[in-house]
Design goal:
heterodimer, A: 94 residues, alpha/beta, three-stranded parallel sheet, 2 helices, 4 strands, B: 526 residues, alpha+beta, Glutaredoxin, five-stranded mixed sheet, 18 helices, 23 strands
Chain lengths: 94, 526
């Protein structure tokens, strides 16, 4: 019985296992609230912003929004969030 | 014809490795045991070897090991036949017939090529060699040999070997990783285990099959045609061919699959969202132009169903590319709450000849003679529009408008698009009143229109406009008539189906426009 060879139909990339960033013990600095533009995501973020502002008055909160929930966030938006913030909270939907 | 015989290393019958440099004055002859002409040539080769082996490199190459042993036993030649049962040397030398004898000069260039056995040619070559090496003529009774024998086909061009040899050759277009399936493994089970399948059995994509598939296109196998979300995997022609083999495509379908994948890998189509949405969207592929007939697509009876290889496997190949290269797998980055059978395959051709209007591709800016693939994102369908009673265009188009209002839910206006498939009998009813596509679209919008106040959520159905929002609206705004679709362009129309049956159908869209998926058409590069 001979061995059969087949060709790999996938993109052949070995998945990279990524280390999760260590979770800080305290929330200080800048926090991004990202709305993915799905209905009622803003309601959740409004409440979060209010709660965070009360509990952590020294934290700076900035609101961001993706142009549409159906596509990945544009590169520029991702860079802007990363450059200017220490934390990001994204409101998913459904 | 080759210009030089490339260097090789083969084992002889004594299991010794014999190296040929490819840059020497040499005689190289290819034979196989079951060829009668080769057997007739054996005494000539033996005499030639005996006479000239001291002055010129002589290599006799046989194409089967058992055959070489049999020849050795039968003739007891002075040479030990080299084993090219892998056929790589025969293939590289482009040998189509055995015997083939190459004479190469001191630079390795082929000076003479003798194919089969033409007595005068062989005699002439041996006479020239005698003169060249200042030796007596070879002692052979030439008259006892046949004047001419055609030779036999080389095993390296036998259809059962040729594709494998092409796949393994140095200039092979194949670059994908080869996966060896264990000899004791069932290849079909193996492919299921690897996660390559949509749930149905796959044709094993062997290098031979993929090469045959690549013959369906003139495009370079390594040409990258796009990046497939969600994994952002690069898609080249070879990967499409591999998945097309698995799907069961014929090589002549490949250009359609390539064009559909090109269409899908656009920002407009947004396959990332199409796969990731919980709503269960899937590509629906419509083919227009001459290629429909060339590859035997179904556009008539049962066009949206099973039973036609081109329809079924083109759609499946596209889905397998999305799955295997894009990485969209249910439960992972494919998040559809229910899924739908279109996710296996959904591809059909428009019956342009039964279409009294412009066919889809012409409407979308192509020439009628172009072959074009159009890809839509649809979440449901085909959903039937049953109307066997209407006898006027207005009445039938009204039924269509009312039925289409149910897309998503009846209160969801301005929400999505649709692909309406009008069947021949309904075409005839519409043409009784000389309806144009524009008339049909206008009537659908007219009969699906509702005052805004009817679209507000209530106790019967909570879907629709929020009551709080409606409370802040003027009477005029609440009385404004809202058609089902944002624009008439959101109603895409094609003709397909059997001659009998007053059952048109619609595919229901997903999120449309820049925030969702925009239909994309691509000319098929044949």
């Amino acid at each position: 019985m001979t061995m059969l060879s087949i060709l790999d139909p996938t993109d052949e990339r070995v998945p990279v296992s990524r280390q999760i960033t260590p979770r800080p013990k305290q929330i200080v600095g800048n926090v991004a609230l990202l709305d993915i533009s799905k209905p009622r995501g803003n309601v959740l973020l409004d409440h979060l912003e209010e709660t965070l502002s009360q509990r952590l008055p020294d934290v700076n909160i900035t609101r961001y929004a993706k142009p549409t929930f159906s596509k990945p966030a544009p590169e520029a938006l991702r860079q802007q969030i990363q450059a200017n913030n220490d934390f990001v909270i994204e409101a998913l939907a459904d | 014809m080759v210009e030089a015989v490339a260097a090789f290393e083969l084992k002889n019958l004594r299991d010794e490795k014999i190296a040929f440099s490819g840059t020497s004055d040499a005689l190289v002859c290819f034979i196989k045991e079951d060829c009668p002409t080769c057997k007739e040539v054996m005494p000539v080769l033996m005499a030639m070897y005996e006479h000239f082996a001291g002055g010129i490199d002589i290599q006799i190459i046989g194409q089967t090991l058992e055959g070489n042993k049999a020849l050795d036993k039968a003739y007891g030649p002075g040479f030990s036949i080299l084993d090219d049962s892998a056929l790589k040397v025969s293939f590289a030398a482009d040998v189509e017939t055995v015997p083939t004898l190459f004479r190469t000069d001191a630079d390795g260039a082929v000076a003479d090529t003798l194919i089969g056995f033409v007595r005068d040619e062989w005699q002439d070559l041996l006479q020239r060699l005698s003169a060249e090496f200042a030796q007596a003529e070879v002692d052979l009774d030439w008259q006892s040999l046949p004047q001419w024998r055609p030779g036999c086909g080389s095993l390296s061009v036998d259809p059962s070997n040729a594709d494998r040899l092409r796949a393994e050759a140095e200039n092979s277009p194949i670059r994908a990783r080869k996966i060896d399936v264990g000899a004791q493994d069932d290849e079909f089970e193996f492919m299921f285990d690897q996660g390559f399948s949509d749930g149905l059995p796959l044709v094993p994509p062997t290098p031979e099959r993929v090469l045959r598939m690549l013959e369906g296109t003139r495009r370079d196998a390594q040409e990258i045609i796009g990046v497939m979300a969600p994994n952002l995997g690069e898609v080249n022609i070879e990967k499409i061919a591999i998945n097309a083999v698995m799907a069961g495509c014929k090589p002549q379908y490949l250009p359609v699959v390539i064009a559909a994948v090109e269409a899908i890998c656009t920002d407009d189509f947004n396959v990332h969202g199409v796969m990731a949405t919980t709503m269960g969207a899937s590509p629906v592929i419509v083919v227009n132009g001459p290629i429909r007939h060339q590859i035997g697509m179904n556009m008539g009876m049962g066009a949206l169903g099973q039973g036609n290889r081109a329809n079924a496997t083109i759609g499946r190949a596209v889905r397998l590319v999305i799955r295997n290269v894009g990485g969209a797998k249910p439960g992972e980055t494919e998040r559809s709450v229910l899924g739908n059978p279109m996710k296996f395959t959904m591809c059909f051709a428009e019956w342009e000849e039964r279409n009294p209007w412009q066919p889809l591709h012409v409407e979308r800016g192509f020439d009628a003679s172009d072959s074009v693939v159009s890809v839509f994102t649809m979440t449901s369908g085909p959903t039937l529009i049953v109307d066997q009673e209407s006898r006027s265009a207005d009445a039938l188009a009204g039924t269509m408008g009312q039925t289409l209002e149910g897309i998503y839910n009846p209160k969801a206006h301005f929400a999505t698009n649709c692909l309406l498939v009008v069947v021949p009998e309904h075409v005839d009813t519409l043409m009784r009143d000389n309806y144009s596509k524009t008339d049909l679209r206008k009537r659908i919008q007219e009969t699906s229109s509702r005052p805004t106040r009817d679209l507000v959520g209530n106790d019967v159905s909570g879907a629709g406009l929020k009551a709080a929002t409606a409370a802040g609206m003027s009477e005029e705004a609440l009385n404004k008539m809202m058609p089902k679709f944002r624009t008439e362009e959101d109603i895409h129309i094609v003709v397909a189906g059997g001659e009998a049956g007053k059952f048109s159908a619609a595919f229901h869209g997903w999120v449309t426009g820049n925030i969702g998926s925009i239909p994309v058409s691509r000319k098929i590069d044949i």
